[in-house]
Amino acid sequence: MRIGFDAKRAVQNYTGLGNYSRYIIKNLCRFYPQNEYILFAPKRRVNEQLSHLFEEYKQIQVVYPMQYIWRKLSSLWRVWRVTSRFTNDGIQIFHGLSNELPINIRKSRIKSVVTIHDLIFLHFPQYYKPIDRKIYTYKFRKACQNANRIIAISECTKRDIIRLFNIPENKIEVIYQGCDESFHKEASAEKKKEVKERYNLPDKYILNVGSIEERKNVLLAVKALKQLPENIHLVIVGKRTPYTQKVDSFIQANKLKDRVHIYSNVSFKDLPAIYQQAEIFVYPSRYEGFGIPMIEALHSGIPAIGATGSCLEEAGGPESSYVDPDNVNELANTFNEILSSPEKRERMIAHGKEYVKRFTDEKLTRQLANVYKQIIS
Fold it and tell me: For 12-47, b where at least 16 C-beta lie within 10 A, e where not — what string?
C-alpha cells in the first residue's frame, strides 16, 4: 500500500501528538516495510527524532505542499492544497494522525482514517478560548463524519465520539498507543548515576511527568506531599504554563521549596532513568485521552497512581491505584500506603509489568494495518 499521513505534528511537535505520530510511522515501517509512507507537512522544520526515522527507514518520503505558498496561508494546507497531491502521488489511504482530515477529503476519493485522541475541550471548556473550542468542534466532528474509519485511542474517547458527535459505534476502532521502546529497557547503573547527578535528583522521590497545566492537576500531589515523611520529595517534569505560578505559590507558602523539584528542559533520552529511580509515579489529571505516562511508569517498574474520571484505568490497569482528583487526603493516604508496604509496592510493579504486555508495538500496529486493509478491500 501507499499510505499518506498528516505529519504536521510529527514534524513540529516533540511531545504528545508528535510522539504519537512518530510512533505510528516508525512501527508501520518496522512491521510493514513493504508499504510506502508519504508524510505531508506544512513546512520544513528540523526535528531530530524524525530525522532518525528518515535515516533508518527508506520507505518514508516527506512532502511539503505549502512550501512555495505565502507563509500566512500555510494554516490552510489541510483544507485544499494537500488533497491535490493525493492522486498524483498515488495515495491509497490518507491517515489524519492528530484529530483532523482535509475538509475536502471526500472529493479526492481517497480512503481516509482519522485518529481522535480526546474531546477534552468539550468536557472542560474553561481551559480553552471560545474560538478554539468552535474550531476544534467543527474540525473534529467533520473529520469523524468524513473518515471511512475512526481510530479512538481509548474506550473513553470512543464513548465521547459516539455521545458528543453522534457517530455510529461500528465506525470506530479502539487502538491503544504504546510508549517508546526506551522505557522497556532497564537503564544502566552508569546512566542512572549520570542522570541523577545532572538533575540533582533526590534519593527518594515521587515522579510526575506531563505539561504543568491546570487540567493535569499536579498541585494535588504537591498538597499531598505535606502529609508524607520529610525524606520524600516530588519531582515534576514538564513544560511550564501560567498554572505553574499557582503551584510555585503554594510551594513557597508552605515551605516545600526544598522538597519539590520542577524540571522543564529534560532530554527525552534521560526520562527512562528518571522514571526508574522513582518510588512512585503519580498522574492526577482530571481528564486524558489515554495517559501514556502511566504506561511509561509501568514499563519502568514503579507503582502508578492515577485519577478517576476519565480513561487512566485503561492505561494503568486494575492493580494501579486511582484517587479522586480533588481529594488530597486520599492521595496522601495512597502514597503512604505504598511507601510503607514493600509487599504492596512489589505486587503493583509485578502486575503492572504483566498488564502492559497488551500494549506491544507489534500487536497495536497489526490492529492498525488491519483497519487499512479493511477499508480498501
Answer: bbeeebbbbbbbbbbbbbebbeebbbbbbbbeeeeb
Is the separation of the CB atoms in 295 and 220 below 8 Å? no
CB–CB of 136/123 below 8 Å?
no
User: Three cell numbers at 90?
Assistant: 498515488
Residue listed under C-alpha cell 474560538: 131
Length of the chain: 377
Q: Which domain holds residue 320?
A: 181-358
- Domain with 154 in it: what CATH number? 3.40.50.2000
Measured distance CA(16)–CA(83) in Å, rounded: 26
Residue 57 DSSP one-character state: -
Reported as a single tens digit per residue, the pLDDT across 50-92 is 667 767 777 787 776 655 444 555 556 565 556 777 877 889 9
Q: How far is CA 211 from the centre of its chain?
A: 11
pTM score: 0.90
User: How many angstroms separate the CA atoms of 355 and 60, rounded?
Assistant: 32
CB-based contact 157:144 (threshold 8 Å) = no
Instruction: Indicate if 304 and 338 belong to the same structural domain.
Output: yes
Instruction: Give me the residue label for grid cell 516527506.
Output: 62
Strand partners, 205: 233
**pLDDT at residue 58, as a whole number:** 76
Residue 185 CA to residue 278 CA, distance in Å, equals 15
Q: Which residues contact 323 (CB under 8 A, 6 or more apart)?
A: 284, 305, 306, 307, 308, 330, 331, 334
- Give the rounded distance of the alpha carbon of 176 from its chain centre: 10
Do residues 161 and 251 both lie within one domain? no
Q: At residue 16, what are phi and psi to the nearest 5 degrees?
A: 45, -115
Q: How many CB atoms lie within 10 A of CB 280?
A: 24
